[in-house]
Amino acid sequence: MKTLKIRDLSYKYPSAAEPIFNAIELDFEEGWSAVTGINGSGKSTLLKLILKELKSEKGMIVGNDLVVYCAQSTEVPPIELEQFMMTYDKEAYKIRDLLKVKDEWLSSWEVLSHGERKRLQLAVALSSHSDVLMVDEPTNHLDRRSQAIVIEALKSYRGIGILVSHDRTLLDALSQYTVMIKAGEVLKYRSRFSLAQQAYQQTLSHKKKVLSEQEDEIKKLGRLVQVQKEKVSLAKKRFSKKGVGRHDSSLKEKINGAILTGKDKNDGQMLQRTITKQRHLSENMSKLAKEYATGISFEGEIAKHNFPIAVEKACVTLFESRELCFPRLSVDVGDKVGISGDNGVGKSTFIRYFVEKVDFQQEYLYIAQEITESQAQQLFDEVSDLSSDAKGELFTLVQRLGSDAKALLQSSIPSPGEVRKLLIAQGLLKHPSLIILDEPTNHMDLESIESLEASLKEYKGALMFITHDKAFLENISTKQWVFEKSQDHRYEVQEIL
Description:
By secondary structure, the chain is an alpha/beta fold. It has helices spanning 43-50, 81-85, 90-98, 114-126, 144-155, 168-174, 193-238, 249-260, 263-288, 347-357, 373-384, 388-399, 405-410, 416-428, 446-458, 470-476, and strands at 3-11, 21-29, 31-36, 58-62, 67-70, 132-136, 160-164, 177-182, 185-189, 309-311, 314-317, 323-326, 329-331, 336-341, 364-367, 434-438, 462-466, 479-487, 490-496.
């Protein structure tokens, strides 16, 4: 049985103060291993170390000679795409059939939906005859039908599979092992994700109990330190010869006797021991409590007089003579409009049309499905130019979405999930009355998704969002716009209140 072995591995980004990994030990076996953790915890860094794109400062990785990495981004087509599409052997046909890949996709990358691009990416990766296949967020952008197609295709892989995902359905469908990266620790469970999560929650519950006990202990030690400081202060006064008469030899002898027998040192030594214990407990508690507070709030006045906003009944051309038709659609203050439908039915096209056609009289936030490298660099430049107060507010928002903003800005390779959080936080600084999010859960870790979900439910303005995440859709939306195919070249929008 093939195994990928990681031994005593350490890695630190040149601009970072602390290493992201420190002397980790980890084995990956045949079958699928899920790798989970908050954005910025090191998931993508671990994949790049295995792929040899990054070189570790210490330690070794064995068994990573034939590795293929299927990245999160669908911005650029795979290098081997044409070769794969021009291969007509039995295996290539099987993979194309598994992922429902169409021949015309070879020359249509620019007009394909992100979901169709993702299926092409995976098809090329599965055809590569690798010992290790690493897949980063493979169900981003995919509708439910496509998600089922991808799960079945990935199940056909027979090597060492490493899966990074926030999709709980995918994680449980594929994973035989689970690796969790938590507060610098790398934990491995020989079980699928949901069972590993239960085991971790039990550990976390015990950890919180220990944390509570240590908080109580630190409080007690704080009170004890105060008492002992008072004792030391009294002892110094008691053993001081200041104020003793020049000729009071009897009292001077008593004080000298106390000093010679070390009585003046006892309280001081006890105080020092207590302070040392208090410090050690505080350091230990800091390690135990290394979790971010989550949940963001929306402040500022909502310009209610500018609502409702609407687009009139119309039909717009998508591509290949396909047409999207919709009735008059409006958004009022307090509405949370969930937009759903299969890949390629025009959801993102409609959002762009909506933004162009509506005359906005208020501040709004629009975040697209994917953020390019150039857009991310522009975002970093804009954040660098913010005032100290604005930066502080921004960092707080990012931290409450589960990431360290300062570390993010210092990172030479920030994850797409971290960039998305930074973009959301930057937009929220403007106190928008309307928020438009295209696939907001893409690339984000589970904890951050839950935090964003809870926050958007409390948002008082208007919200429009496209998503394939069923739970996210049902938990937030007050009404839905469902995009469906009605004829060969026509798609329609149905409003469900």
